[in-house]
Amino acid sequence: MASKTLYSDPRLKKRDDFEDILEERRNSSDLRYALRCYTPLLYKGITPCKASMLKTTVLKSDHVHYVIQQLSKEMGESPDIIKEEAAEILEEMAQSLQLGIIRFFAFTLSKAFKKLFQRVKVNEEGIQRLQQAIQEHPVVLLPSHRSYIDFLMLSYILYTYDLSLPVIASGMDFLGMKIVGEMLRMSGAFFMRRSFGGDKLYWAVFSEYVKTMLRIGYAPVEFFLEGTRSRTCKSLTPKLGLLNIVTEPFFKGEVFDVSLVPISISYERVLEESLYAHELLGVPKPKETTSGLLKARKMLGDDFGSIHVYFGHPVSLRSLTQKKINRSNFNLVPRHIPRKPTEDIQAFVNNTGYRMVRLQQENMVVSPWVLIATILMQDLPGVDSDYLIEKTAWLRSLALLFGAFLDWPDHVPTSKVVASSVALHHNIVRNVNGRVVLIDEEKPNDNSSDDLVFKKAVTVLMCASYRNQIMHVFIRPALVAAAIHTACNARKEEVFSYFNFLRELFANEFIFTPGNAVQDFEDGCYLLVKCDAVQILKQDFVVTETGQSTISFLVAMLRPFLEGYQVVCKYLSEEVIEGFTEMQYVPAVRTFAVKMIISGSLKSYDVLSSDMQKNCLAALLRLNVLRKTKLADQITIKINQAAVTRLVDALDGKTPVQKAALARL
Amino acid sequence: MPEVLNGVCMQPFHYTQHGSSMASSSNISELQQNAKERLRIISGHLQKPANREQLCVSANECKAEAADRSLGKTGTIPKRRQDILKWNGWGYNDSKFMFNKKGQAEFTGKRYRLSGMVLPALREWFEKTFGASLEHKTPARSALNPSDVPPPILNEGFVQDLKSTAIPFSCETEDRIFRAHGHCLHEVFALREGKFERVPDLVVWPNCHKDVEKIVEMACKHNICVMPFGGGTSVSNAVECPSDEKRTILSLDTSQMNRILWIDEKNLTAHVEAGIVGQDLERLLNESGYCTGHEPDSMEFSTLGGWVATRASGMKKNIYGNIEDLVVHIRMVTPRGVIEKSCQGPRMSTGPDIYHFIMGSEGTLGVVTEVTIKIRPIPEYQKYGSVVFPNFDQGVACLREVAKQRCAPASIRLMDNEQFQFGHALKPQVSSIFTSFLDGLKKFYITKFKGFDPNQLCVATLLFEGDREKVLQHEKQVYDIAAKFGGLAAGEDNGQRGYMLTFVIAYLRDLGMDYYVIGESFETSVPWDRVLDLCSNVKERIIRECKDKGVQFPPLSTCRVTQTYDAGACVYFYFAFNYRGLSDPIHVYDQIEHAAREEILANGGSLSHHHGVGKLRKHWLQETISDVGLGMLRSVKEYVDPNNIFGNRNLL
């Protein structure tokens, strides 16, 4: 199996080295840099085209023309009027990439980045691979999304290395910002509405716009698979709309191949960390405004550590489809007529989305602070400094064994590394009398009021967001560990079926490639055996003496998630009688959880995160524990109480879960 | 129609082999007289002294053949094919490309326009395109090694019965090996330096329909395998013997069934024996002032029966139609008996057309013995032409428009840039400074004045046919359309050379094989909107596959659009590469061709436009025509030939 070599053995992963691009910026003129000669190598099959020509091409395309005619027939509107509408949509969305504005950004961002960050590190081999790929085929850039900085940073890097600047799919929100929106447009951003379900004209114009740019090789097309910035710093499950669009030209034979380039952008300290925590706790996201941006200037005084940008190997869409997709299925309908993708195409695109997110995860750089946060999260509110240092060293070797991409400074004692990490994240932790504790812990056991809970929750969720950055390394062995820990016996089938149950339950929480359960299980087992935590004797798992602590640690790492889902179930069985609406759900669960925390029956704060609440809701709907019904224009969610009880029992390990397909093991 | 005008078309565009030698028995001298007269007039018309000389030569040749004929031989192709055709390559023994002592390429023989000429640019093109070198030779073995040929498996009872019929047959090694292959690359390669696992055990030459009936009846009686053999020009593995066939394999060579049985001038049809080769059919009809107009590129050697059995397509189908449009009546001998229709009505609504079971059956159901085919008066006037386009996209757009307006000339073909350059490499030495000066001027005009990129531009070749006036009118219409797509008229000469290329390319392959270069052509048909994407994707796929498979030199990967239809076009690919450094070049070649076909299918192209399925493309037939479709064909086969007497295993 191809994926085996891709994921399972970390020893096979050979990663490139990084270069700090800010170093040169600190030593030479930013102005000269911004004005230097910029001559990127272009796609060999490029059809030269101006941004304005692009719009004409799109409006004249068979696809848009066809949809306009259809709509005109459906609505009895004249095609000219609809065409005008299409032109307006295009006007609103289109980018107008201009070198002048790029140079402006190159100058200002150089200044800003130097203030904000210690280093911006880039793998130059990845840049070279990308340069090669850009010349051969249309390229799609797929960066991870943790911050607003992401796409500015990426364009900045591409400019620095003299690569073609991308066009970037962005949310409409930015257009609300005066001047800045237009500036982003001129730096290559094009804007899409957050939702345009059902608007055929919008979809036609938008998808044709993206496809045209791809087909003619106008520029690399960049978008965020995760759809939005991940507030939790865990990868989000891929959104497939744009991926569907950029894969179609290949399916229809309009291009020979498309290169998908996963890009992992890792922040040692995320600019928006506190904003995210507030958002997750229900404080609405501040609207993007220019004045807001100007206010954010005050951050310039703070130190946000290093950024690592890793350009992964370009993945050939053609080779991904081999033996999976029969492109001749597209032969019987004219290519410009929009069609819903068939099931196998949907499955393929979905799979590809997951695969690309996994590839992003694989090259996410993990800072020492992430290890510290992981340890702290198991021992809130704080631990002894010495213990922390010892435990960090231990976790470091475990993480390395599991294939984590650690950014650990050479020749520096662990104590120093821990100290400097703690210093960098002074807004989360503090070293008080030899103990590293979360801030605002003056009255450690006072959970008396909602307000205090909220305050504490902000800090905990910030800390959790760093732990989350390494979850992808541990999740598979952790699920196996939890399964060994909980399953009725240690037989491989039992462990697998519990593993599978958890994997299904957490499918919205973590990234698992659909249909890949056996592989995930084997990867998890492999790592546990590799770190000597378990032995597999015939069909039985045996936890080794030394392995007990590893297993406990992994199980503890999962505990906040398990507890969170249990809290939601408890809420459902205790508080809800008939049903509830989606609007009610998040605040109600939050209130319920806060009550539990105040009463002391719940220790973990993770469930206060709306992200976890929503993931849990989605999982319960998927597992048919909950069911959506439409009652008089309102969608109500109904509960299957028996199923909730079964789920709670299963989570507690009281009843064996249903047997999964064991034959494949 | 005036004799003079008739004569203009007497010179087929590509070969000068002519004359009356094939006329039927008594009045040879009279016909020869006529022919000579006509030739004189033609050469006057064409005002090309060089041609006159050639024509005289060919007329002389014909006399020699006429003598042959009086010994009972008719038709260009004798029973002993090896007497005039190469045993291990394409075409006539006397015609081939070679590098002379000066290292210049020349084409030997006297049959073609190019014959006897030096082609100064070919060597450089050859070396540059393939990275080949005259120092690295891979000569073919000089003669067949009889011990390489498996001994015949002879069904005694059948041989006894066959002897009693007096139908000529042979089990000589040379005769058998000659009918063991078509012209796929691996087959020719096997002839040059390999061997065949299985070859026919017996060759039989029926003389008429009745003979075929007898042979098939005996074959059924003794359960032997019959494989019809026409021109042997197959490029689909169709003639190759199944290696696990244990029965006697009888190659039924139709070449002696080559008479025109009657011509019906009222209905404009001719009833012809199926073994006649294209050039003979055309020549014999011409003598009566008619033609079929069916001119597949292989027409020198391929037969009427072969065309029917493979659904052939001719270069001038825009005027005359493809074989399915030309055929009025078919007679085929099958193990169940003879199949034919009872009348010659021009169209019938009598259920599915049974002729469509025959056309494309590729020898799996029986032997086509006689065909009634439409004929037309020889057109008064013929004119070549060519148009240069700035790039391939524009050229395709122009062809599409021409098809849309349904004003396609007899033939219109669009070559891509690589093929345009290839065509240039085949320019013969120019005789006068003036011509080369003119050439230089033309080139200057197109590339410098008009700004065409020499590495982008491509050329369409045209052939107009009909009344003189209409041709000129038609010509103007087409050139006007071309102008809208940036096309510039580029003269008759370029057009004619383009068509010539088709006929010599097969000879060129033999030259390549002497120097580590192997190649092949393949074709498809595709809807208009996908033509460009298909062309570029398939070419790209070939280049990539070559790289992946370890081919050390960049391949030649080129295509042209050769036919236009209302709803699409036929695209023809040439693919060749230098195999130095590869241990199993044929296997590599096969893999790449396979990949190219997959790419064609993925891009909306068909499995075949006119080469047929044979054994080479069987793999894809089921996905092409669906399970039910395949089942339909199977059930026909099961009814018609339950014991698989026609066991060449093509198609199904």
UniProtKB/TrEMBL annotation, chain A:
Main location: membrane
Localization of this protein: Peroxisome membrane
Keywords on record: Acetylation, Acyltransferase, Membrane, Peroxisome, Phosphoprotein, Transferase
One GO BP: phospholipid biosynthetic process
Class of enzymatic activity (EC top level): transferase
MF term (GO), any: glycerone-phosphate O-acyltransferase activity
Phospholipid/glycerol acyltransferase domain residues: 139-268
Topology in the lipid bilayer: Peripheral membrane protein
Superkingdom: Eukaryota
One cellular component term from this protein's GO annotations in UniProt: mitochondrial membrane
Enzyme Commission no: 2.3.1.42
Pathway named in the protein's UniProt entry: Membrane lipid metabolism; glycerophospholipid metabolism; Phospholipid metabolism; Lipid metabolism
Catalytic activity as recorded in UniProt: dihydroxyacetone phosphate + hexadecanoyl-CoA = 1-hexadecanoylglycerone 3-phosphate + CoA; dihydroxyacetone phosphate + an acyl-CoA = a 1-acylglycerone 3-phosphate + CoA
UniProt xrefs under InterPro entries: DHAPAT, GPAT/DHAPAT, GPAT/DHAPAT_C, GPAT/DHAPAT_LPLAT, Plipid/glycerol_acylTrfase
SMART domains, per the entry: PlsC
Family: Belongs to the GPAT/DAPAT family.
Assembly and binders: Part of a heterotrimeric complex composed of GNPAT, AGPS and a modified form of GNPAT.
Role of this protein: Dihydroxyacetonephosphate acyltransferase catalyzing the first step in the biosynthesis of plasmalogens, a subset of phospholipids that differ from other glycerolipids by having an alkyl chain attached through a vinyl ether linkage at the sn-1 position of the glycerol backbone, and which unique physical properties have an impact on various aspects of cell signaling and membrane biology.
Record protein name field: Dihydroxyacetone phosphate acyltransferase
From TrEMBL, chain B:
PANTHER family assigned: ALKYLDIHYDROXYACETONEPHOSPHATE SYNTHASE, PEROXISOMAL (PTHR46568:SF1)
Cofactor: FAD
Its job: Catalyzes the exchange of an acyl for a long-chain alkyl group and the formation of the ether bond in the biosynthesis of ether phospholipids.
Gene Ontology biological process: lipid biosynthetic process
PROSITE patterns the record matches: FAD_PCMH
Biochemical pathway: Lipid metabolism; Glycerolipid metabolism; ether lipid biosynthesis
Residues at the site labelled Important for enzyme activity: 413
Residue positions binding FAD: 228-234, 297-303, 310-313, 362-368
Enzyme class: transferase
Pfam families found in the cross-reference section: FAD-oxidase_C, FAD_binding_4
Localization per record: Peroxisome membrane
Main location group: membrane
Gene Ontology CC annotations of this record: peroxisomal membrane
The UniProt record lists the keyword Transit peptide: yes
Binding positions for substrate per the UniProt entry: 509
GO MF assignments: alkylglycerone-phosphate synthase activity; FAD binding
Protein's name according to its UniProt entry: Alkylglycerone-phosphate synthase
SUPFAM superfamilies associated with the record: FAD-binding/transporter-associated domain-like, FAD-linked oxidases, C-terminal domain
